[in-house]
Design a protein that fits this description.
The structure is a homodimer of 263-residue chains. Chain A has 263 residues and is α/β, with parallel strands linked by helices. Chain A has a single domain, classed as Nitrilase/N-carbamoyl-D-aminoacid amidohydrolase (4-Layer Sandwich), CATH 3.60.110. A 6-stranded mixed beta sheet of chain A has the order 5-4-3-2-1-14. Chain A has a 6-stranded mixed beta sheet with strand order 6-7-8-9-12-13, covered by helices on one side. A two-stranded antiparallel sheet of chain A has the order 10-11. The longest helix of chain A is centred in the N-terminal third of the chain and has 13 residues. Chain A starts with a strand and ends in a 14-residue tail after the last strand. Chains A and B meet through helix 4 and helix 5 of A and helix 4 and helix 5 of B.
Amino acid sequence: MRVAAIQFDPTFGDVRGNLARCLELVSSVEADLCVLPELALSGYLFESRAEAMSLSQEPGDKELDALAGFAGRTGTTIVVGFAERAGESLFNSAVLLAPSGSRAVYRKIHLFSGEKEIFEPGDRPPAVVEVAGVRLGMMVCFDWIFPETARTLALGGADIICHPANLVLAYCQDAMVTRCIENRIFAVTANRVGREDRAGQSLRFTGMSEIVAPNGRILARADAEGEAVLVEEIDVAAARDKAVTPANDVLGDRRPHLYRLDE
Amino acid sequence: MRVAAIQFDPTFGDVRGNLARCLELVSSVEADLCVLPELALSGYLFESRAEAMSLSQEPGDKELDALAGFAGRTGTTIVVGFAERAGESLFNSAVLLAPSGSRAVYRKIHLFSGEKEIFEPGDRPPAVVEVAGVRLGMMVCFDWIFPETARTLALGGADIICHPANLVLAYCQDAMVTRCIENRIFAVTANRVGREDRAGQSLRFTGMSEIVAPNGRILARADAEGEAVLVEEIDVAAARDKAVTPANDVLGDRRPHLYRLDE
């Protein structure tokens, strides 16, 4: 199958313009899976929770119909980050738009820095969704630093981690290599670029979106600046062979009764 | 405090010679902690379990007295890998020789490749030992690929991961950077060098022993070949500050009730 990581610079507050840009970008590539950045519709640095709420969507909103329609017409599964409104609640979420029309949502469980003042943390385990026989896991940005996130997805059977991001620290892109090796899984990290100067802060996003294989090989990595559409042909079977040596299976060799992870 | 990673090429089967070399090497450096490689007393590629048994020690054996005596005289804590005999059982273990005379043992819980035919897997959780107010965790070689090992040590309060190794794959040295970042912990990986051609196999060990800081900085890294004694002055307090941002704590921000790690 063909997977794509799409890196661009969303314009803060311009949901309509960002949606149109997302549609242009996914239309520019032939792929079975396109991953777009975190909060790609709204931008990142909200002045307040009320502002974020005003730029939020429900997963079923008509605003997402154009992207969902593209998925249905072309057979391309799209994963994109957005501010999710759920009644009075607000989550930093990713939605998976499947060709079938189904829309699956993952709510970021580890909020980064000032996000804690805007969003509620996700309230459900990281999700795995099967599309056309491929098992897609979702996590969002800072979830990467907690190995439990990717591990939960791998143990749940995910073949590919779909990873929308708005990264500002320098660590993640190299750490995702470790995440792939330790779980023998693919990862598609779609990071944004550009900067935001708002809400008394100035952030530069680090780009370097990437597609990494289960053996840790970086199949493609974008530059730190500028838009990019990375596409790779991958064989999902590689993620179902958990053998790192003929005698070692990275999941089967675990010793859960000797781990002390709940302290 | 001063920590050291010692990289050398043990001679297969020459326990007395290897012990003498270990003593020379730890004597060549002034450090509060010296970590030596996995199976540093026996060598690695055993023809059989019986051969390994013949090259094994009990933790209290007089053979270890010279190293333990050095620890007592100089205040240097020594961690060294050895084949541990326990009645009829055989473990791939590390022993921590404290200046007080105490000897703490960790039995490798994730055996690599052909080790499964020689050793029993460890039967106890990864250990944390406090010496002079510093909390030392032990893991051995291939334990690195399972994030649960380092996580168990970090949650158990370890400041420093003491990591004897006989690495042959190419991944670990970079992956330890991720282990340090995700746990905000120090790691001292003491890998061996050289090659063994025995038991129908040929292995080259990858060296590149290293000392890594809680922010992922590689404080020192040895070459892929040749003996090396790396020494770094570290401030253990850095491992007790788990904040990766003012609002994010890599242990406190975990969401254990949302992880699914026991499948």
